[in-house]
Amino acid sequence: MEIEKKIESYISKINLIKSEISKVIVGQDQPIELMLLSILSKGHSMFVGVPGLAKTLLVNTLAQVLSLKFSRIQFTPDLMPSDITGSDVIEEEHGKKMFRFVPGPVFTNLLLADEINRTPPKTQSALLQAMQEYKVTCGGKTYILEEPFIVFATQNPIELEGTYPLPEAQLDRFMFMIDMDYPSKREEIEIVEKTTGLRDVEVKSVLNKEEVIELQKVVRSVPVAKSVVEFAVELVRKTRPHNSDSPDFIKENVEWGAGPRGSQFLILGAKAKCFLEGRFSPNTEDVKKIAVPALKHRIVLKFKAKAKGIKSDQIIRTLTEK
Question: What is the CATH number of domain 1-194+206-221?
Answer without folding.
Answer: 3.40.50.300
